[in-house]
Amino acid sequence: MGSKRLKADILAAAQKIASGSVAGTSSISGASDEEFTLTYHHPQLAKDVRIQVVAQNSDEYPEGNNFMLFTEDADTNQLAVDAIQNTQDYIFGLRVYEVVTELAKQLDKALNPAKGGKKPANGDDEEEDFVNSDFDGDEEGDDFGDDWSDDAEAFGLHSEAPQRSAHTSFPENLKQKCQRIIHDLRQVRKAGYKVGFLDSLGKNADRGIVSLSIRVKKLALSDEALEAWNIDEDDYLVLLARFEDEYAALGQITARPASHTRVAFRVGKCKKYKPSLAHALGAFAESSRVGKTKPPPTDVYDLDEKEAREDGSEFHRIFISASLDQFMNESFISLLKIREATACSWDAANNHLIERTGLGVGDGGNLRCIPEYRDDPMDIDEQLESHRMLACDHLTDNDLADKRSFPLVAMQFAVRYVVKCTEYCLRCHRRLGKEFEAIRPYVCSEPLCLFQYMAMGFGPNIEHEITTQPYVVELLVSLCYAGIQSSYYGQQRPQLIDLAAAASNPEHTTLPIRALPVGLRLQIPDLFPSDKSNTQDPTHPFRAHWSNTRLLFDLEPLRYLGSHLKEDKWIAFRIPGQSLVRHAVITKVDLSKRSIFFEEKAQSGYNWGTGMYTSPAALGAGFTTPNMQTTAMASPLPSEDPVVEVFIYDTDFDTLDNVYKGEALRHILDTLPPILEMEDFLNKHPHSTIRSMGQVSPAAASILQWIVSSNRSCIYQIDHTREVITPNGDRKHIKLGKGKDRSRERIPDMQGWVQFRFAQGSPDKEFRFKRALQEVAARKNIKSNPTIFAWHGSSLCNWHSIVRTGLDFNETRNGRVYGHGVYFSPEFSTSLGYSSTGAQPWPNSELKINVCMSLNEIVNAPDEFVSQSPHYVVDQLDWHQCRYLFVRTEAGVVTNRLLAGLPGPKNSTSNNPAYHKQPSGHAIMGPNGSTLGVPLSAIPFRHVGAEPSKQAQSSKRDLERSDDSSDDEDSKFLDSDPESGAESPPTKRVTAEASSIGGSRDKAKAESTSTPPSYVASEKGLTDFVPGALNWSTLPCLKEPEFANPAASKHLASELKKLRQTQSETPLHELGWYMDFDRIDNLFQWIVELHTFEASLPLAKDMKKAGVTSVVLEIRFPKDFPFSPPFIRVVRPRFLPFLNGGGGHVTAGGAMCMELLTGTGWSPVNSMESVLLQVRVAMCNLEPKPARLQSGGAGDYGVGEAVEAYLRAVRVHGWKVPEDLQATALGGQTGFQ
Fold first, then answer.
1. 756 in helix, strand or coil?
2. CB of 264 closer than 8 Å to CB of 329
3. In three state form, how does the secondary structure of 192-225 look?
4. Cis peptide upstream of residue 447 (ω within 30 degrees of 0)
5. CA-CA distance, 71 to 789, in Å (whole number)?
6. Residue bearing the bigger pLDDT, 1146 or 301
7. Which residues, at least 6 apart from 832, have a Cβ–Cβ distance to it below 8 Å?
8. Do the Cβ atoms of 813 and 972 come closer than 8 Å?
9. Which residues of 1059-1072 are buried (b: 16+ CB within 10 A; e: fewer)?
10. pLDDT tens per residue, range 1093-1138
11. Cα separation, 982 vs 985, whole angstroms
12. Is residue 565 within 8 Å of residue 586, measured between CB atoms?
């Protein structure tokens, strides 16, 4: 449909242009199905310009299509080229004639200064410059939000492309600009990110595209989050930045209006640290749909597409690309200016910007957005996993002042929002409430956010979900269908509800579903007018005579119908007194004959479960399914022409009461085609969408999108095989969906149940579960079997809400005789008893789901549950994790022998190394009363018992692999001096060998102290620090403590290994710390030297005056590290106490005063590299006072005084003292040393 409309619009636009209707355009030539050439002329051009216009997604034209614009004409005026590129970003969703007129408008404006083209430098309007205006949040002329100057942009519509800045750059020539670019990108690399040059930016040009990236495995994300987000740990998270005007330093950007900075961003993933130039250009040319970007034509960019796929240089959109791209392109510069002016956090800046610009978001109606923020730049960042990549805030680095890097600030911003995406609304980007921690991001409860989220395509690609996991989509639809079935006066059969009584007594009517699709602006037929009003308009519902495919109206109804009767409009009609409702699309309107012609698409009923889709077989011609009903017409056509009531799809869904909302959703879902038929359609039409299926109404498509998008859990189908019967009567096995093969994760002995992998919670929920598990195991001395498995059963009506809001105990449905908490049982039959159906299955379902249960992993501490008999009652939400979802079907299409990927019942699972060993007395029981085996492959490796099988170990990817060294060319250019051409000392790269962590402390220490190549480049003149000059005989050297254990030793050895590699790769003057790894005999005690402080710091001046080249730190680790923080203190030199004017977060006793190092601020995901960096940053902090050295020789700090000062500081700030502080500070000794 889209391609045909596009071709027709090209021909129509060509006729209009030929008639001279668009100034400057003379003709359209070379038109094909997807592209054409536009000829443009202007007095300022030496010759006419031929502009290629290529449709990027013709099947979705116009709403889902964008055009790529470019010219191949040589020597084209640069202003014209820029105008063409500028227009590219503002034509998404436009029709051909609109694109042509917009392009002509922008070209004319760019080439004609009198109409807003580029002005000379002396034409600047200084009053617009932010430098010359005071910051005032209430000032109407505030330029923070000048990109949202009208209501159209507040609703996500594009405005006219901003023109080039009229402000001149600082007086620099091109070489100086390139030097600044290189300087800023070096800062990015120094912060731990990779830099990729894609064109001439920084080499011989001050505009272009640069790629910034980081390996995903460095972001400390859980396996469940990566799987839910469809990201691999070995992928690179990539930020593309395209500078469309002359590159500007951060100080210049913050000193001028936001619209005068023209930089565009794209966030995605790549197998390499940078994508190819063609794919980068394709990313900026296409709409923000999740998936692979389409490169421009290869004849333009000379790219071998197959080679790009093979070498991993493709750029792929990710789950959050559309939302984050828009956020950065619309708001990042304004947020940056607000932060620079007010020293507030990113969240506070966004809150201020929304209040100033609106963005269509209401002020007081948002129940899940929290508008209050402290104006502390580190308020939110301290809550991040304190990894060096995540915790650092380059914008607040006052030591660098005007040397701060704009690309680094942008990269930190992007990484922060990717990692913490589930905590923010995907539309307004305000922080969400804490009532449910999701593994998938979503929007807040503001209706307009939901509408824009759906309208702008920020949610998951529904077509991708259907073609990869059709059973998951069907599961979600079935659960929604069950959740909208009301219970009235305790009745469990929804079809027995008296709607009139329910409407008059809404307090007695409940919907199990907790959230309805309010805010989508759904247009539905109002099928319940007579139930809601005694003063019904006699003309509504409209009556007509039904004859085959025609409706004949009387004259009176036509006065009210008028413009509502249009082609492609959906209607519903029924014979008065009958329950069957027919849904159809108008194909022709003939008002002269008072007739409309229609094509019937589906049927629904006033009784639940009677709807019927009227299309042919779900899997295409020639195949049927055992026990599957034919999707033929549910009711024959009447023999006579009856009078029918006609309902138009023109009622706003939001205006209905909840009971009617549920009924309306049911009628719409009844019309939705079977999911497997959608899968078949999409496989046959790979570039189409479900909206292009003629059988899917706009309302049904929007509801399906909402059902899938609002699912905030991670669900994957295990069963992919389906049995069909060919026309010859043969049985054939076909694969459903293109998703990952998970047959190894299937649990045997569950005949008649379809299995799904199931995970919930925020990206760090798995980590919190592990922490609880380890804490309990350590406290109870559990050596093996730290977890047990148990069932949770609930009515099918409740599961739509459970998969969105988690297993909680906010509502009581079956009583709480055994206490408050989530109820589990090891007995299958017990939980099955709580899984009463009470709901009719979705009539177009393949599976006909009637029961749903989850299998959960729980911390093995039954004696600490609220109750352990006859049920487990767990009130600590971090003590249990969902692992599986099981659904029982009526269709009987699933058989264990067909789908099981693991050995059948003959192979006992009790002692099978491929299965989780369950603790005695707490085994999980299956339907037949036998013990079920849970595959090890389905459990995160870190949760399995003490000695996991080699099979399980080998199946996990080694996380110790180092980054690739394919960026040598880019690094070499970064190390070069653009002015002199000389190169800086090279950075030597090390490739760590893949190895598993050893089981003994000796092996761990041996691995950590193995000697990698060291950094050997000369640093003369760059630092006065000399490695190896420290006198170790004057330092406390402790023996390995008695509390040393294999778990902590392994972790410490791994940290040392990473630090050693980092130190070997990084120049000393850039690293700022040094460790003599050959001197470490005790893994629980480290000595670290901080050195090479910024020369302008008072601390650096004092050190130089005192002849001191380093600050010596001692780090002592607790027995349960990394679950408790290390104790870090300064050994020497002595710092000036705070009361005497000192600072730098060093207490009077030498201990570091940082929330990070307390029980309040510590997180086990902290790496020691990030801890060292943050300690150094704190020591360099000038607020509230700078660090200074104490004059005079008072000797080294003692451990005892450090502990006392630490405790005083913690109590003053109200932080939590680590429980094992005393033992940690003693280092396993009997007294302080």
1. strand
2. yes
3. CCEEEECCCECCCECCEEEEEEEEHHHHCCCHHH
4. no
5. 63
6. 1146
7. 791, 793, 851, 853, 927
8. no
9. bbbbbbbbbbeebb
10. 988 889 999 999 988 999 999 999 999 898 899 999 999 999 998 8
11. 10
12. yes
Task: Flag whether the pTM goes above 0.70.
Answer: no
Is 563 exposed, middle or buried (CB count within 10 Å of its CB: 0-12, 13-18, 19+)? exposed
How far, in Å, CA of 1022 to CA of 42, rounded? 57
Q: Which whole-number Å values give the CA distances from 187 to 191, 385, 418, 525, in the listed order?
A: 6, 22, 21, 59
Q: What is the token pair recorded at 667? A: 């009628």
- Cα 1 to chain centroid distance, Å, stands at 32
Looking at the chain, how many residues does it have? 1233
- State the catalytic residue, choosing from 425, 444, 852, 1153: 1153
Amino acid at 884: Y
Phi, psi of 586 (to 5 degrees): -70, 125
First and final CA of the chain: distance in angstroms?
A: 80
Q: How far is CA 420 from CA 221, 231, 425, in A?
A: 10, 15, 11
CA separation for the pair 946, 999 (Å, rounded) = 10
pLDDT tens-digit profile of 456-492?
Answer: 667 678 888 888 889 999 999 999 998 888 653 334 3
* Secondary structure class of 887 (helix, strand, coil): strand
Return all residues near 166 (Cβ < 8 A) that are at least 6 apart: 118, 119, 121, 123, 124, 125, 260
Q: What's the token pair of residue 805?
A: 């809001």
The Cα 404–Cα 411 span in angstroms is 13
CA distance 812 to 810: 7
The backbone region for 862, taken as left when phi is positive above 0, alpha when psi lies in -120 to 50, beta otherwise, is alpha
Is the pLDDT score of 509 beyond 60? no
User: Tokens at residue 481, please?
Assistant: 């269908």
3-class DSSP state of 660: helix
369 included as an active-site residue? no
**H or E segment to which residue 303 belongs:** none
Q: Cα separation of 841 and 882, whole Å?
A: 24
Q: And the tokens for 710? A: 């609002």
- Cβ contact 923:826 at 8 Å: yes
Residue 779, CB half-sphere, CA atoms under 13 Å: how many?
A: 12
Q: What does 445-495 look like in DSSP terms, one character per residue? A: S-HHHHHHHHHTT-S--HHHHHHH-HHHHHHHHHHHHHHT--EETT-S-GG
Supply angle C-alpha 593, 594, 599, rounded to 5: 100
Find the helix or strand (DSSP H, E) in which 850 lies: strand 849-859
**Side chain identity, residue 1024:** D
DSSP-based three-state secondary structure for 226: helix
DSSP letter string, 942-1010: GGS-SS--HHHHHTSPPTTPPPP-TTHHHHHHHHB-TTT-PBPPPPPP--PPP-PPPSSHHHHHHHHT-
Which of the four pLDDT bands, split at 50, 70 and 90, describes residue 74?
Answer: confident
Q: What is the mean pLDDT of residues 743-747?
A: 84
Strands 822-824 and 787-793: unpaired
Token output for 113 = 């200064």
In one-letter notation, the amino acid at residue 66 is N
Determine how many CB atoms are found less than 10 A away from the CB of residue 458. Answer: 26
